[in-house]
Amino acid sequence: MLINEPETPENLKKQLNRQKLKYFLLGFIFLVPISLGGISLIMLEAGMKFSNLKKRASYVLIQPPYSHFIPESYKEKESQYNESGYTTFKGINVMLTGIGQKTVIQFPIEQGKKYQSLEIPNDKIIIIPAHIQKKIK
User: Fold this and answer.
1) How many whole angstroms separate alpha carbon 24 and alpha carbon 60?
2) Distance in angstroms (rounded) separating the CA atoms of residues 132 and 118
3) How far is residue 30's CA from residue 118's CA, in Å, rounded to a whole number?
4) Which of 63, 69, 75, 133 could form a disulfide linkage to 124, CB 3.0–4.6 angstroms apart?
5) What is the pLDDT of residues 72-85, one digit of tens each?
6) pLDDT value for 84
7) DSSP letters of 29-97?
8) Strand duo 125-128 + 55-62: pairing
9) DSSP 8-state code for residue 109
10) In the chain, % of residues over pLDDT 90
């Protein structure tokens, strides 16, 4: 290949094809490992935590009738978080909050069993994230 090839339509077409191939291979090299290696799920999880859409095991205060759907084993008898009309639960995973009018929580009904999801309207739930609990104690 000459450094200064004449700019003929044929040479311009070859150069354009090389550029397309170069960008395709570059995209392929980066996107395939991300999509097949599980990195995309890790990045999605980290993004949700960073934007406060997902919270780890937290204290949640829930009003009836939604508080009746959560097993008694999660109920906190003597909690430092009390609000009239709310029942306090601990160890509940908040899967999605801050988008729309509902919060999605998740908990296993029995130890080692599948997780149960529950959608609760935002006006019926108060969430106290795990990182705030550590600072208060």
Assistant:
1) 48
2) 23
3) 37
4) 63
5) 888 888 777 777 88
6) 83
7) HHHHHHHHTTHHHHHHHHHHHHTTS-EEEEEEEE-TTGGGGS-GGGB-SS-S---TT-EEEEEEEEEE-
8) antiparallel
9) S
10) 5
Statement: the pTM of the whole predicted model exceeds 0.70: no
Collapsing DSSP states into helix, strand and coil, what is residue 113?
A: coil
Going by C-alpha positions, the residue among 58, 61, 62, 42 that lies closest to residue 50 is 42
CA dihedral 94, 98, 104, 107 (to 10 degrees): 0
Length of the chain: 137
Residues 6+ apart with CB under 8 A from 78: none
Burial (Cβ within 10 Å: 0-12, 13-18, ≥19) of residue 20? exposed
Contact 112, 75 (CB under 8 A): no
Which residues, 6 or more positions from 56, have their beta carbon under 8 angstroms from its beta carbon? 93, 94, 129, 130
